[in-house]
């Protein structure tokens, strides 16, 4: 069976032969895309959602499904229609070193870092000021 795109592939190879972007340019484009995506997505999270996620990781490492289950048990329904959004938030928190992850037995387990534990401790001790601390965390993660 012949490849119907053979001529197109050859044409692209000829037109773009030797054409490449520098690593600096590639990184700049990636950074711009990540900044735009994280900025748009994180402003939709509620402070209570973030608090519940961090609380669920306080005692032990958990995989995404366990975190999701605990959130549903707490009547946190932010991820009900799109559970994939939870993983986006976990990834963004990991990028800011609030949480860390480790693969074990084909599952990715998340746990708090020392920085994440400081956030949990700060909002537990601040009482009414916890909203400010977690809003700051949401802003920090979105950068």
Automatic annotation (TrEMBL):
Source domain of life: Bacteria
Residues covered by the Transcription regulator PadR N-terminal domain: 53-121
One Pfam assignment: PadR
Signal peptide stretch: none
PANTHER family: TRANSCRIPTION REGULATOR, PADR-LIKE FAMILY, TRANSCRIPTIONAL REGULATOR YQJI
The protein's name: PadR family transcriptional regulator
